[in-house]
Amino acid sequence: MSSLVLDGGLATHLEALGCDLSDELWSAKLLMEDPDVIRRAHLDYFTAGADVATTASYQASIPGFVRHGLTPGQARDLIRLSVTLAVQARDAAGHGMVAASVGPYGAYLANGAEYTGDYDLDEGGLLDWHRDRFEILATSGADVLACETIPSFHEARALAVLLRETPSVQAWVSFSCRDGEHISDGTAFKDSAALFEDLSNVTAVGVNCTAPRFIPSLISQGATVVYPNSGETWDAAAQRWTGLTDPIEYGEAAAEWHALGATHIGGCCRTTPAHIREIRSHLA
């Protein structure tokens, strides 16, 4: 069974390159301040063996940039720039694809809601919030949209509407999950994934930024795209990560996920080019 190796944590690698991401825009603030380092981070992941670079648009949104003093036009240009940088890295590497990150509303809130689905908007409000950025990214030249870290059934329904309106745009959808059977708001993963069953432009449905220990169960529930975090735990009180998953162990786990049926495999928060190198090695 063939597989695509996705990249790892973009923000994690940017921090390793010396970037300060202590801002509600997270890695997206570098679209304003230092776009060259984003291009370098993408290239590092391609060099490590990734087939796909996921853009720095996860936390990028028009209202988020406007809140930082930009005009809506400037915000739209920066969202397009996130794709341009990944395309440039892909061309420099001589291989690969670009996935335009469509992050959740919770990323804009910057309060951890992408892991709870505790939102102040209903489905209609979420549809309105997503529409402008979705349309920008859908026409940006990316190979695929990565609708990722979705914690909420209502948000998934809103994204399904947008994907149904753009049948020529390829996408994958990945949820943040609280355990091996439920997305973060408590909805069954199977029920959430079923929203996209009739959409031929959705190439895969799965999970990301979820503990690796839940991945085998979620694959048994139908997940085919899997890019969990490193297995470390965020200590909110101490404001630091605890625990560690070795890249070699991560690569071994990736081989297991592939054998179980995953077709798109990578990493999310706290994974690095070293993790992706091990995934490539174990899947080779």
* Strand portion: 5-15%
Instruction: Provide the CATH top-level class.
Output: Alpha Beta
Structural class: alpha/beta
Sketch the major β-sheet. 8 strands, parallel
Topology pattern, helix = H, strand = E: EHHHEHHEHHEHEHEHEEEHEH
CATH architecture assignment: Alpha-Beta Barrel
Cα end-to-end separation: 12 Å
Examine the coordinates and then state which fold CATH places here, giving the name of the CATH topology: TIM Barrel
Write the CATH homologous superfamily: Homocysteine-binding-like domain
- CA gyration radius, whole angstroms: 17 Å
Based on DSSP secondary structure assignment, what is the total number of beta strands?
10
- Mean pLDDT reading: 95
Shape: globular
What's the helix count? 12
Oligomer: single chain
**What number of domains?**
1
Low-confidence runs = none
Q: Which range best describes the helical content: under 10%, 10-25%, 25-40%, 40-55%, 55-70% or over 70%?
A: 40-55%
Strand order across the largest sheet? 1-10-7-6-5-4-3-2
Q: Can you describe what's shown?
A:
This protein has 284 residues and is of the alpha/beta class. The chain contains 12 helices and 10 strands. It has an 8-stranded parallel β-sheet. The longest helix is centred in the first third of the chain and has 22 residues, at 72-93. The relative contact order is 0.14. InterPro entries: BHMT-like (IPR017226), HCY_dom (IPR003726), HCY_dom_sf (IPR036589), Hcy_S-methyltransferase (IPR051486). GO terms for molecular function: S-adenosylmethionine-homocysteine S-methyltransferase activity; zinc ion binding. Zn(2+) binds at residues 209, 268-269. Its cofactor is Zn(2+).
